[in-house]
Amino acid sequence: MNEERYAYRIRQALNHGLKDIQPAASRRLEAARHLALARQKQAAPEMVLAGAGTSSFRMSAYTPYLKQFLAVAALLLGMWISFYWHSVQYVTELQDVDSALLTDDLPPDAFLDNDFFEWLKDDSSEE
User: Domain range spanning residue 91?
Assistant: First the structure.
């Protein structure tokens, strides 16, 4: 709060002193201000890695696009890993069912019987 009050007092003092400045000096100050603002806009932001020492890592103008590309690539990689993991799980479950059916004591002709498939459907719906 004290900083705001102090800034307000400084601004009031500077505004009060504006009346005493000659017009030529006022124009020169305005030109210097515009020149400083123009130079400030041209300065490119630089990012430097902490602890890099004298070598610096400068980010180019394509940095936002690089960040977006990396985000999309990470998302796609995550989706692919998820799909792969689920497909491996599904194949493992099918493998367990097939192994259980093949190691059972049923004759191969039982697999050709339509009633057997109906029994399998009824048995799986109860779980």
Answer: 60-127
